[in-house]
Amino acid sequence: MKTLLNIAIFLTLICTTAGSYANDGLDAVLAAQPAEVKARYDSRHPAETLRFFRLKPGMTVVETLPGGGWYSKILSAWLGSDGKVIGADYAADLYPRFNFYDDAVLEAKKTWVDTWTAEASAWSGANGAAIEAFQFGSLPDSMAGSADAVLLIRSLHNLARFEKDGAYLSTALKEIKRVLKPGGVVGVVQHMAPEGNSDSWADGSKGYLKKSFVIKTLTDAGFKLIDESQINSNPADQPGENDYVWRLPPTFAGSADNADLKAKYKAIGESNRMTLLFQKPE
């Protein structure tokens, strides 16, 4: 009888959770995205990831390195007119350190806040979330304590890579803590380095960071790890110290003229990614 009762409770919990997901509107938003966005669902798992990060319509969410808006467009439609999406780009003076951006791109970064806000507002439309933006190192006082969540989706490695050149990672984490409300969360999705690889290789320059490094860095910055998930894991991705993450799809760097090598990387799939949830103290 006790076993049957436990099974009944378990099934009730499943049905309740499934029902709440069905009513949160995210599935409908994802179904409405264009085909090129849906093509990435199998590797990015947006429904599972956003729900794991405990996001809900009406929230204010900071998305770091929003770029062309793959996640921002989903978030804007889902968070709705009561919500807000805040784009957070790297500091403008980080970009010259990549050594591959031309002068036009570097000049455009000086006005990124205004141009991205205008572009993203067009994506948002009349019923979407409000749009704001800032660059790390320049968080406006008006945004302090305003966000329910900050998303660090594949954006930590460059902050770590250039930390010694301009304190980019430590500055970003201070501002993330400042922009969050008490109890707000930080969701991390990051290419994950094998723990056995050298720290010098896993410094972010190859796209990978060790999970131990990410956890220590965020906890040292005052955040508490409250959950982790295998949603975005891919055990087939086991990079050696001569590898970088961009060898894998969708980039296929280094294999454009080598069909066999490209097929090998395609079989591996996209990178093995840690998915971690941290919280700012109440």
Could you explain the architecture of this structure?
It is a single chain. With 282 residues, the chain is an alpha/beta fold. The chain has one domain (26-279): Rossmann fold (3-Layer(aba) Sandwich). Helices cover 40% and strands 19% of the residues. The chain has 13 helices and eight strands. It has helices at residues 2-22, 26-31, 35-38, 41-44, 46-52, 70-79, 103-108, 112-124, 156-161, 163-166, 168-179, 211-220, 259-268, and strands at residues 60-64, 84-89, 130-135, 147-153, 180-193, 209-210, 224-229, 273-279. Strands 1, 2, 3, 4, 5, 6, 7 and 8 form an eight-stranded mixed sheet that branches. Strand 1, helix 6 and strand 2 (84-89) form a beta-alpha-beta unit. The N and C termini lie far apart (42 Å). Residues 1-19 have low confidence and may be disordered.
What is the chain-wise order of helices and strands?
Answer: HHHHHEHEHHEEHHHEEHEHE
Distance linking N and C termini = 42 Å
Structural class: alpha/beta
Instruction: Round the Cα radius of gyration to an integer and report it.
Output: 20 Å
Query: How many beta strands in the DSSP annotation?
Result: 8
CATH top-level class:
Alpha Beta
Number of discrete domains: 1
Unreliable runs, pLDDT <50, ≥5 residues? 1-19
* Fourth-level CATH superfamily: Vaccinia Virus protein VP39
Can you give the helix content as a percent range? 40-55%
Gross morphology: globular
The main sheet comes to: 8 strands, mixed
Q: Helical segment tally?
A: 13
Mean pLDDT: 93
> What is the CATH topology classification name?
Rossmann fold
Q: What CATH architecture would you give?
A: 3-Layer(aba) Sandwich
* % residues in beta strands: 15-25%
